[in-house]
Specification:
Rossmann fold
């Protein structure tokens, strides 16, 4: 057998067991020295091939006597060739690769390139291809199962196990090569070829609907905190829809660092959101937006959930409660709700350079994420009338909320509280009316509120309706060929209008 490993953990135990079955070991450099120092016989690759390692050890296993021993099938023609070239058959290959993925995270490009494994990948692929005769082992994590199999079959490995190890090996080499390609492409926004490197984390109970199957994969190239890093502190396993909505929840709370912020999501739309003088106050204000729609939703906070807040949360039915931290007493209270999923975020999200992939038939749509500076001082007042200073926080807050509502989106905000939401309508004026209807149903007076629209207003009719409601300011991207008509109407009706220059469609 051949052993050549970068990670030598657990190797001594494996060699000990192999020695019990009289396995002859061929090995390279440092690996051979470790085996010899442990008291076991080992033949170096250089001794076997008659060819010394060169180029600082970068060339040592790339030799016909090594690959002939691995790729030989056992046919009569192969036996003749092997006899002529003094090649012995190799029936097990234990190789793990240089730690390129670790080294490429440094700024040292030469170090990263030096850690691109050539011989190791070739050995693994050759052995995996010939799995009917050869056992291939690519990780110390496989040693215990390998030892169990050897014990069970008196030193032999079954074909089923060899095939399973081969499949895993091809996955490892594919991942390894794709990591190298993606690293070389790291400065290109849209390279000609891009490889998705995803690893299965767990199965989910079902997909978006019960008749659909689903699981969760981690993006192994994602460098920031991700959904696989969430701590689940209580309740049922997260569902497909839970995971998708927690992604939105996490993004929203991360936009509010020092404020006391709460958001309630339902079907990935905020149905409640507010900034309060305390976390409990923020929650109560967010709940007041639409208490009926909040039923069965997800609640997120940007600061610690204490016992006072937890005692309010357990009074209602929610699918998920999430925060960056939860006090011990609060956790005990929340756990009294048996099925409530309690989630702790590892940290607040930061601006990311990663891309968003959307599956379509026969391909992918790829874009960067919708990231923008949504502060008021980045906007432009386009009417002759300036908004009151007291409205500026509501204007900024309303724009932040509109970003996360499905288009066509209209939101109303008053006192940094979301008071009306019109989501997912095919007509923008319908969203204007639905958001007002929801606000009035929940006892809010729209007079003095701010209206935000995720896209431009194609006609002045929405502005006329907003004036009837007593809206005090409007924020919108602008960009319509009829912008001037809309602005003139706002001026005529005495409503200051702000253009952001950025659209926030969410589909």
């Amino acid at each position: 057998m051949l052993i050549s490993v970068s990670d030598k953990s657990g190797l001594e135990r494996l060699v000990e067991v192999l020695n019990e079955y009289g396995v002859e070991i061929i090995s390279t450099g440092n690996t051979a020295r470790m085996i010899k120092n442990a008291g076991y016989e080992v033949r170096t690759v250089s001794d076997y091939t008659g060819f010394a390692e060169i180029l600082g050890g970068r060339v040592k296993t790339l030799h016909p006597k090594i690959f002939g021993g691995i790729l030989a099938t056992g046919s009569e023609n192969d036996k003749i060739d092997m006899l002529k070239s003094d090649i012995v058959p190799i029936d097990m290959v234990v190789v793990n690769l240089y730690p390129f993925e670790k080294m490429c995270q440094t700024d040292d490009e030469k170090l990263a390139i030096e850690n691109i494994d050539i011989g190791g990948v070739s050995l693994l692929r050759a052995a995996a291809k010939n799995y009917e005769r050869i056992t291939v082992v690519n990780s110390p994590n496989q040693y215990n199962d390998l030892i169990t199999e050897l014990r069970k079959n008196n030193g032999k490995i079954s074909t089923a196990v060899r095939k399973s190890l081969a499949v895993d090996t091809f996955a490892v080499t594919a991942f390894y090569d794709s990591a190298i390609l993606n690293w070389f492409n790291r400065e290109k926004q849209f390279p000609e070829k891009r490889l998705l490197r995803i690893k299965k984390i767990n199965d989910l109970r079902y997909g978006e609907n019960p008749h659909q199957t689903a699981c969760f994969y981690k993006d192994t190239d994602f460098r920031g905190p991700g959904l696989s890093d969430l701590e689940i502190l209580g309740g049922k396993q997260l569902s497909y829809n839970n995971v998708a909505e927690i992604d939105t929840l996490w993004q929203m709370i991360s936009n509010h660092g020092n404020e006391n912020f709460c958001v309630i999501l339902k079907h990935a739309n905020p149905c409640g959101a507010a900034i309060g003088y305390s976390m409990t106050d923020a929650y109560e204000k967010a709940l007041s937006t639409d208490p009926v729609s909040a039923f069965g939703g997800l609640v997120g906070f940007n600061k610690t959930i204490d016992s006072a807040l937890a005692s309010e949360l357990v009074k209602r039915f929610y699918e998920v409660v999430a925060a960056p931290d939860i006090s011990e007493n609060a956790l005990k209270l929340l756990k009294t709700k048996k099925n409530l999923r309690i989630v702790r975020f590892p940290e607040m999200l930061k601006t990311t350079e990663n891309y968003n992939f959307k599956r379509v038939r026969g391909g992918f749509l790829v874009s960067d994420f919708d990231q923008s500076d949504d502060r008021f001082d980045g906007f432009k007042v386009v009417t002759k009338i300036e908004p009151a200073e007291s409205l500026k926080k509501d204007i900024a807050f309303s724009w932040q909320m509109a970003k996360y509502v499905k288009s066509n989106a209209i939101v109303y905000v008053k006192n940094q509280t979301l008071i009306g939401v019109g989501a997912g309508q095919v007509s923008r004026i319908d969203s204007v009316k639905i958001a007002a209807m929801k606000a009035e149903q929940n006892g809010f007076d729209l007079r003095g509120a701010v209206m935000a629209s995720d896209g431009f207003f194609p006609f002045p009719d929405s502005i006329e309706v907003a004036a009837d409601y007593g809206i005090a300011a409007i924020i919108t991207p602008g960009g319509s060929i009829r912008d001037q008509l809309v602005v003139d109407k706002a001026d005529a009706l005495g409503i200051p209008m702000i253009f952001t220059g950025i659209r926030h469609f969410r589909h």
